[in-house]
Amino acid sequence: DLRFRSSGLIGDTKLADLMREHLDDLRIEDLPRTFVGVATELTTGHELWLHQGNLIKAIRASYALPGVFAPVAVEGRWLIDGALVNP
Fold first, then answer.
1. How far is CA 57 from CA 8, 54, 63, in A?
2. Does residue 75 lie within any of the structural domains?
3. Do the beta carbons of residue 66 and residue 81 sit within 8 Å?
4. Within-domain flag for 76
5. Does any domain span residue 18?
6. For the chain, what is the domain count?
7. In-domain check, residue 64
8. Going by C-beta distance under 8 Å and a sequence separation of 6 or more, which residues neighbour residue 86?
9. What number of other Cβ atoms are within 10 A of residue 58's Cβ?
10. Contact in structure between 31 and 50 (CB atoms under 8 Å)
11. How far apart are CA 27 and CA 22, in angstroms?
12. pTM for the whole structure
């Protein structure tokens, strides 16, 4: 869904709904395999490794390319795509 009124060009509502349908409230630490999402803290530019917490938020933060998708709030921090600091 294209949109022009928020901080991202493409809304991820449909994708987030699809993830909620299949992943529900899974937490990273409860997965049967190791998962680490990589994100960048928007205010500091620091790379963050997301290895605990809500799986959907970690996935969304890891693909939140600035200007395309809106940043994602995780534990009081605004996160964007981790490839910006570690391609």
1. 16, 6, 10
2. yes
3. yes
4. yes
5. yes
6. 1
7. yes
8. 38, 47
9. 24
10. no
11. 13
12. 0.79
